[in-house]
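Lecture 7 notes. Example A: sequence first, then its structure tokens.
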Amino acid sequence: MKVVVGGSSGLIGAALVRRLQSDGHDVLRLVRRAPTAPDEAEWDPVGSSIDAGALAGVDAVVHLGGASITGQRWDAAYKQMIRDSRVNSTRLLSETIAGFHPKPSVFLCASALGFYGDMKDEIATENTPKGRGFLADVTAEWEAATVPASDAGIRVCNMRIGVVLSKDGDLPRRMLAPFKMGLGGKLGNGKQYMSWVHIDDVVGGFVQALDMPSLEGPVNLSVPNAATNREFTKALARAVKRPAMFIVPKFALRIAMGEAAQFATESTRMYPLKLSQSGYRFRWEDIDLALRDILRD
């Protein structure tokens, strides 16, 4: 299978490309510069340009682009970047492949748990309606940008990815130092749910979606048993063999992070109904084992 991958240099993209290549697929990576290798094709989502000729005849398209929502305060300009980096690039790809003859059989596009907003302890399946807030609005626009492809008869999966656990990801790097010093602790009351997923299962979920024609539309991609922040905090403390006695008040997070604090304080308890029904079995469902794996030297 010939697979085009946008966002191939990112955390998920790099891992997915390795898996696809090891499975024997021919991968074409979209890059935002002049190509320097036969497996690259140039595009410019900001300028709405793409080398469509290089993509002709591909079997599948995967898109994983988007500016990070962590590590920076969300001023008006950055919120616009979060939105545009997702919506505009997705629309460009979607409209481009919609005009192909023959067309790719499938378009997998990253999406996010932010679609559901703050749901307290309610379980969110793919049938749960959109929530409220900035991230919910952006995610809905992001998914809507794939409509040209689906209207053209291409199978589209909007992969609603949870909080990714990876040794190369933002989460361990940002949290590890205080926890190793014994300064870790829960956020607020710790009751908010965090729908997490190991990087191995993110890749596994995408491969399942590529291979299973029955998967279509929104697809939740996180473990079946989401952890509360309190459970995650205790598991991380066990993994680094340090106590986690502190409590970070929500108001302190809001002062430090502004609107971006909602990523850490809102509760989303996703359940991967479609993936489970398709027969996918998560490799990492135990939070202790998953954290130990990504924190290994």
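Example B, a different protein, same format:
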Amino acid sequence: MSSSFPSSLLFSSLLLITSTLIASQKTGTIQMNLHQFARWGSIKIGDQTFQVAFNIGSPNSWLIAKNASFNWNEQGLQRKKVRYNGSSKTSKPLGKKFDFGGPVGNLYTDTLTIDSVQIPQFPFGAVTSGIPSQYQDPSGYDALCPIDGEFGLSPATGTSSLNSLTKSLDKPIVSIFTTKVGTGDDNAGSITFGSENVKNCKPKYSYVPLSERSNWVIGIQSININGQPSINPLGPTKLKITNSGLYMYGPKKQLDILAKQLGFNVPKDSGTFYTKGSCKEMEKMPNIIINVGDNKKQAQIVLKPKQYMEVSPIGECRFLFMASETYASPGDNNYWSMGAQFLLGRCVAVNWVDGTMGFSDAS
């Protein structure tokens, strides 16, 4: 005796299973924009929506408090700052002060919403004073600044914004995908919380250990041009993803070697671009191979010609590496520092529990 399973019932069962799986996913993706090379996007805390800068060098998150003091008249702004008012049902003042090395104020918890994912009791600071100057508007310097606060993306252990998300997400992973690198570009990519970005990048990520637990920093084993001898000496043995900035930066001595191998003219001045006569042969140029990781785990990052050279607005064919002696932030001379150009057309993910960083090229 045979029995049959009604097709309509089978379809309904599959639909229910699929819907349950989708509903159970705890991954959120938000649009990433750029302002003066700072990455920012929109999140919701309580019942208010804020535009926050994503600071990969900070473990803390903060918003501008309703009673914050500014150094200018906000009437001159094209967009007024959104201030945290603490009026949501889930808002809870902790009765504690904080000092984040500049921003000071009062600690709160409230429900954080990233895309469709809700994180209850998310801790952050409501800043009353000490708002960083890059988010202020003295004398109309930055009247278009869209930033209402910061969201810390440092993978530091202990108390941090990312560690507050762990139990509410599928995976303790944050992924950055970059499609544009202009100073004021909207829709310049995306930031995914809870998983790797497999929508825009290839699903297999190559992970290596972080060499500094609080920063987006990994070790470098070697740098070479498509199988040519590696740069020797290498110089700094660490690669750092910078919080802002456009270009890629390294010591001039090593960049001179790299530039010569690629046929660029080497300037005497460390503050001058490496250039060549024409970019017409760009497609035929070799790749730059950066081998990263430690003695136990390595991965390979490939910089294609369109990622390391460009035709400038004045028609110059430029190398997109600059001498760190002139342009890198103080203290960054100990790294190969990678700005937005390095991230263009690729995904970079950090697992803040395992302490690893992974890479995948755009699909």
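Note on Example B: Residues 7-24 form the longest helix (18 residues). The longest strand covers residues 117-129.
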